[in-house]
Amino acid sequence: MRSLAYAFILLAIGLSQSVRADVAVLVHGYLGNAGSWEFSGVNHALATNGWQPAGVVVLGPTSPLLPPPTANAPRKAYSVELPSMEPLMMQSDMLIDMLRAIRSRHPKESITLIGHSAGGVVARMALVRGGADGVTRLITIASPHLGTERALQALDATQDGGPVGFVKNIFGGRDYRVVKDSWPVLVDLAPAVPGSALFWLNAQTHPNIKYISIVRSAPFGIGDQLVPGHSQDLRNVPSIAGKAVTYIVPAGHTLVPADGAMVAQLMR
């Protein structure tokens, strides 16, 4: 783990696409939550690099609820709490409201959106549907921008048709039921085809901001156990191909502390 962290940091030092950002907004992925950034050590790495944790933004009864204001630090990092099993558009609309609330607190600061896994797609959809008011950069980590076959496999494994489906329903266990309840977002995360949410998203005009994709390089090639490398690479999204910059890093799909160090370097 230590050598992996060093590899990330050494790579980060050489990055040249860095521009100062004042506010970071962290968007978790499928079956994750705002705590994913804390438990993975990303928040600690961000704090070590000058990004003060600013708390968690949650959904309120009528509008998003911001955490109490923190001390006057030049750089702040908010985490958001989204219902990750719901459709991408629903999550993105909630994120749009959260971004507006954050923008109202920080009207003069620039905002960097950082999304892990499906959270990177949610963030991109929020930019397309809600505009980029104050957002100057999107950084995605291991995100399935073109979809993933794993989503199709999960959908197939939780089909309820026939006697086998009946048995699965009764004896499938908690994980089976969680995946089954996740059908709305899994359908959206399947490989992009005409009529799908990803196909629509990838054809839309995107805001003129900086786009950076962090692509995982697993032991057996580019990509990881959940998302192939070509799908993680924003350069393969037709509408932003010429605007995106991609970095390949050695890690699996999950967040690791070195992600925080690399993202902090990118935002300097």
Molecular structure report:
It is a single chain. This protein has about 270 residues and is an alpha/beta fold. The protein has 2 domains: about 220 residues, Alpha/Beta hydrolase fold, catalytic domain (Rossmann fold); about 40 residues, no CATH class. The chain has 12 helices and 9 strands.
Question: Secondary-structure map with pairings?
Answer:
Elements: H1 2-13, E1 23-27, H2 36-39, H3 42-48, E2 52-59, E3 64-65, E4 76-80, H4 88-105, E5 111-116, H5 118-130, E6 135-141, H6 149-157, H7 162-171, H8 173-181, H9 183-189, H10 197-202, E7 210-218, E8 221-222, H11 229-232, E9 244-249, H12 257-266
Parallel strand pairs: 1-4, 1-5, 2-4, 5-6, 6-7, 7-9
Antiparallel strand pairs: 2-3, 7-8
Helix pairs in contact: 1-12, 3-12, 4-5, 6-9
What would you report as the Rg, rounded to the nearest angstrom? Answer: 18 Å
Secondary-structure element series: HEHHEEEHEHEHHHHHEEHEH
**SS-based class:** alpha/beta
Annotation, overall tally of beta strands: 9
Low-confidence stretches: 1-7, 12-19
Could you please say which CATH topology of the largest domain applies here? Answer: Rossmann fold
Major β-sheet annotation: 9 strands, mixed
> Considering DSSP H and I runs of 4 or more, what fraction of the residues is helical?
40-55%
Distance between the termini: 25 Å
Shape, principal axes of CA atoms: globular
**Total separate domains:** 2
CATH architecture of the largest domain: 3-Layer(aba) Sandwich
Helix tally equals 12
**Mean pLDDT rating:** 89
Assess the beta-strand content as a share of residues: 15-25%
- What is the CATH homologous superfamily assignment of the largest domain? Alpha/Beta hydrolase fold, catalytic domain
